Amino acid sequence: MNVDQIDPLDHRDAGHGVDPLFPRRWSPRAMSGEEIREDQLMRLFEAARWAPSSYNNQPWRFLWGRRGTAEFAHLFDLLVDSNKAWADDAAALVAMVSRTTFEHNGKPSRTHAFDTGAAWMSLALQDTIDGLIVHAMQGFDYDRAEEALNVPEGYTVQAMAAIGRPGATAVLGEKMA
Amino acid sequence: MNVDQIDPLDHRDAGHGVDPLFPRRWSPRAMSGEEIREDQLMRLFEAARWAPSSYNNQPWRFLWGRRGTAEFAHLFDLLVDSNKAWADDAAALVAMVSRTTFEHNGKPSRTHAFDTGAAWMSLALQDTIDGLIVHAMQGFDYDRAEEALNVPEGYTVQAMAAIGRPGATAVLGEKMA
Fold this sequence. Notes:
CATH superfamily of chain A: NADH Oxidase
Number of helices of chain A: 7
Largest interface: A-B, 46 and 46 residues
Strand order of the largest sheet of chain A: 1-2-4-3
Oligomer: homodimer
Distance between the termini of chain A: 20 Å
Helix content of chain A: 25-40%
Structural class of chain A: alpha+beta
CATH topology of chain A: NADH Oxidase
Order of helices and strands of chain A: HHEHHEHEHEH
CATH class of chain A: Alpha Beta
């Protein structure tokens, strides 16, 4: 089948005149195994960079690895088996980490996770605009991830994500979801 | 001055070919005091509704009040004075609350704040698309908010936000930021 014909808007009924960007973003698991270029990844992180945050603290950090690299393998190893089953076709894996304190005074931030979620959403929407797909995951060992990724004191892992190109079984991925 | 001429892109230098939607979204405090219609608000919440979340738990809840209502006054009363100083020109106030557990099994969610931040970002971007402005705040008493808003056990307030139309001193608001 022609994956270009898969459009979430065919089976998502959005209301209130919302911009199609939002219902068009979905989280398929079926990725093609194709690579994406580093500059394509950087565009996603650039979108995330413009997200708002309390005191403009920008608490989000992205640890990423492109397919075929040691960094990718390192991130992949943290996933639970049910995520490994499909994420091996991702073009990149990302661990999303937040700084739990404010840079300007070192005090605890109430919104570091919330702010990092905002940055993640921007990344996901830029991804959609670019015709890529991204699927966030909490299916990994958080404690092991913080150790394996050398996440320093004062930072915590919020989620991981797989980024890639849509695969031919994207519809199946939707059914699994 | 003509507020329509204020464009964050005039003084924001975004890179990597990122979609202008992201740098165009900003957080001015200067709002016009004009109302917005309820269907305009619903469009923002609809955008938020399409955000991804772990197990599709959609943990976000929005408590909102439009200008001139008792609900608005109730939300406004929670703000610190420095936010009251400008938020009285907002068209709506919103408290963003997250459910801390999964609906399907009642277990704690690791990502409820992160997911709610994703929904918030979608709201903010739809707001930008619609020519409105929105400014999130953590400048309020969280404990008092949870009590005053009757936030039930298992839910927690993540942030508040003011939504409105751009005011004539929007440039000043940017300088304050």
